[in-house]
């Protein structure tokens, strides 16, 4: 190598022997390497292959993208030529190009993740709309979030309409060490996505959470509130048992998935309320006349069916004296008492006004009379407000194989009830069909 001509070049020129030891190098390379005594040292002390290079490290001539061994943001483009038993390396400054390449790849990776996550959001929107139950919706959310974040496990926590909370789908990763309500409140109170990396961050959120994470070998998690139109339905949590960091798109993706799931959950609960309203009495919550007649058709023709037609005595007096609100309270109390007096398999329904019907399978008419007597005993046990509670009960029993339809059996029980009322009320009249 002509040392004088090499020193004038604005590129690095390095001659190596067959073992990769530097035999000679120009000033440009020494300055770039940051060492005056490069001769006699291995080239590997100064240059390393870049993982971002497009060519394999064993390509014959290059060029290769090489990085400074200590300052990995500095790069050169290197080619080599065989010279006798060694080789000559030609190096040109490429730090700016390297940084541009890194930025371009970062942008491509971001675009690829964005496209993938957009596909996940679109697919999940369709999947959520097909869910017919809260459990199926929760299972879809568990599967979707686990795939979206490549999490080992995901869990969906839901608040029930009655205020209690439960794990709707996915495992109890923390094994009960942290209360479900606390995990929901962690994201429901601030109504924001929470990204936790490490036990210390978890401990700052909920006392004891860091220890629970350590016991469950959880290294990180991301949680989002299931929130729609001022209603907090719960949350989802994706758990990681490996070291994990979150990019800027992790939270927006969680918000999108949680928002879709919460909207679908709101629709399911609205449908459930409407279905319940269509089949249940608004005041007492008992099944209404429609359910009664539909289920009676299933009972008739069995081993024997009894209808107890119950009419409260002097209910009009309660309404006139204390008002309709007091009357409604009495009706609700009657419904609760009826449920305590009958068997678990019996059907209790509000027929209309102050009339209730109990349908039950019986072997003998005496079985129905026994149930009616329990009802009167429960009514007599205590009073509602200022009024004593009593009722007239008519019983109609259809034996096994009877051809009576539901409406006929109810009508006969109604007539028996009327006879009980005209006889003074607070009694039972049985009519056997």
UniProtKB/TrEMBL annotation:
Keywords on record: Nucleotidyltransferase, Transferase
SMART domains the UniProt entry points to: GGDEF
Occurrences of domain GGDEF (ranges): 303-433
Highest taxon, organism lineage: Bacteria
Pfam families per UniProt: GAF, GGDEF
PROSITE patterns named among the record's database cross-references: GGDEF
UniProt entry tagged with the keyword Nucleotidyltransferase: yes
Name the UniProt record assigns to this protein: GGDEF domain-containing protein
Organism for this UniProt entry: Microbacterium psychrotolerans
């Amino acid at each position: 190598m002509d040392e004088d001509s090499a020193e004038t070049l604005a590129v690095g020129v390095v001659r190596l022997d067959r073992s990769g030891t530097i035999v000679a190098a120009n000033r440009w390379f020494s300055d770039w390497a940051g060492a005056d005594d490069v001769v006699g040292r291995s080239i590997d002390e100064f240059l390393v292959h870049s993982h971002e290079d497009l060519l394999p490290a064993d390509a014959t001539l290059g060029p290769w993208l090489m990085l400074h061994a200590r300052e990995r943001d500095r790069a050169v483009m290197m080619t080599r030529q065989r010279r006798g038993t060694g080789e000559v390396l030609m190096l040109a400054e490429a730090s700016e190009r390297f940084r541009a390449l890194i930025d371009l790849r970062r942008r491509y990776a971001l675009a690829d993740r964005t496209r993938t996550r957009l596909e996940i959001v679109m697919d999940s929107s369709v999947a959520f709309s097909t869910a017919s139950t809260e459990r199926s919706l929760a299972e879809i959310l568990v599967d979707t979030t686990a795939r979206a974040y490549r999490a080992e496990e995901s869990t969906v926590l839901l608040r029930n309409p009655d205020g209690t909370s439960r794990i709707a789908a996915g495992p109890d990763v923390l094994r009960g060490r942290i209360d479900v309500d606390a995990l929901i409140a962690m994201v429901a109170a601030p109504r924001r996505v929470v990204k936790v990396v490490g036990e210390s961050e978890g401990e700052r959120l909920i006392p004891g959470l860091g220890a629970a994470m350590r016991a469950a070998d959880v290294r990180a998690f991301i949680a989002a509130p299931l929130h729609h139109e001022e209603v907090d339905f719960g949350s989802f949590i994706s758990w990681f048992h490996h070291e994990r960091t979150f990019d800027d798109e992790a939270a927006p993706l969680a918000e999108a998935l949680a928002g879709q799931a919460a909207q679908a959950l709101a629709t399911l609960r609205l449908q459930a309320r409407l279905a319940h309203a269509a089949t249940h009495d608004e005041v007492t919550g008992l099944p209404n006349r429609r359910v009664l007649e539909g289920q009676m058709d299933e009972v008739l023709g069995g081993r024997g069916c009894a209808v107890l037609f119950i009419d409260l005595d002097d209910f009009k007096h309660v309404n006139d004296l204390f008002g309709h609100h007091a009357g409604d309270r009495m009706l609700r109390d009657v419904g609760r008492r009826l449920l305590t007096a009958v068997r678990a398999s019996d059907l209790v329904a509000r027929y209309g006004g102050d009339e209730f019907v109990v349908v039950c399978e019986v072997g003998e008419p005496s079985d129905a009379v026994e149930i009616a007597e329990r009802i009167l005993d429960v009514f007599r046990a205590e009073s509602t407000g200022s009024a004593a509670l009593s009722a007239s009960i008519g019983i109609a029993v259809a034996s096994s194989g009877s051809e009576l339809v539901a409406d006929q059996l109810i009508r006969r029980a109604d007539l028996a009830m009327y006879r009980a009322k005209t006889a003074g009320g607070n009694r039972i009249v049985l009519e056997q069909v």
